[in-house]
Amino acid sequence: MIAFVRGEVAALTLSSAVLEVGGVGLELMCTPGTLATLRTGSKATLATSMVVREDSLTLFGFVDDDEKQTFELVQTASGVGPKVAQAMVAVLSPDDLRRAIASDDVKTLTKVPGIGQKGAQRIILELKDRIGAPTSGAAGPRPVSAEPWRDQVQQGLVGLGWSAKDADKAVDAVAGEAGDVPDVAALLRAALRTLSRA
Asked: pTM for the complete prediction?
């Protein structure tokens, strides 16, 4: 088990960061919020969780241990794999997630891509007694907006080195393409195209 990774950020992509550790580049799958804290060429320490599958070993990177533990805990709910768990910690802070589960807030959980009404109810039922209380009394630093895809795309752009102002303009420019079920990756690509034309 790899508990954390410390090294120089060698590369950043839309969904991952490569950290050079002892001459080896380790690719960590990260949320846009985590990627936004990293800069190519700077040193970084990320808490990690390794997901072992029959055909792959995937390392997920997190800004802190609380986010990592939340990611691992939500996967114990039936029907929640690493991709949905990562989407949960991308859209909701660990405390927002605890609050949503403790208060039976199905609406907040269904804002996470990949979680429907029944899935949210199952997560609440299975995790309510295990997720614990929020660690801070106030609302978390990442409130859920009416359109969570906006925050994800904006954070992804900032993580790739664009200014927050440029990122916000690009998000507004692609808002019309969001539709009823926004595809965050496609919207991020569209926003990048908008920025490259500017």
From this structure: 0.66
